[in-house]
Amino acid sequence: MTMRPDRFTESAQEAIAQSQDVVRRLRQSQWDVEHLLYALLEQQNGLTGQILQKLGVDGTLVRQRLHTALDASPKQQYEATQIYATPRIATMFQAADGEAKRLKDDYIGAEHLLIAVVNERDGQSAKLL
Length: 129
Description:
With 129 residues, this protein is mainly alpha-helical. The protein has a single domain, classed as Clp, N-terminal domain (Double Clp-N motif, Orthogonal Bundle). 62% of the residues lie in helices and 3% in strands. It is built from 7 helices and 2 strands; from the N terminus they run H-E-H-H-H-E-H-H-H. It has a two-stranded parallel ribbon with strand order 1-2. The chain starts with 9 loop residues before the first helix and ends with a helix.
């Protein structure tokens, strides 16, 4: 799936941009599912935090553990000039698109991204959730 910004809601676009900022801030070059989940959890009054709270999941604790895991990932000496999407995040975006279509939504929102992250079986995000 080619990522078309016009297919995403504003909050989803913001989370995607924030997740790429996290990659840069941590001086990493690979953009992965954990970066996106971290950005979703960082959103003030975001849907992800509300959903996790209703499910009895401590979003703050998940975010802290994600930060620890991301911070331990390999770093570059300087901020990355180019970010590479991992196959996992590409698959996650395809799954989010599928969720939006399944729910008959016109746009991919934060809720679809969260469902796709939760359904993703590999990686730190799946273990933390």
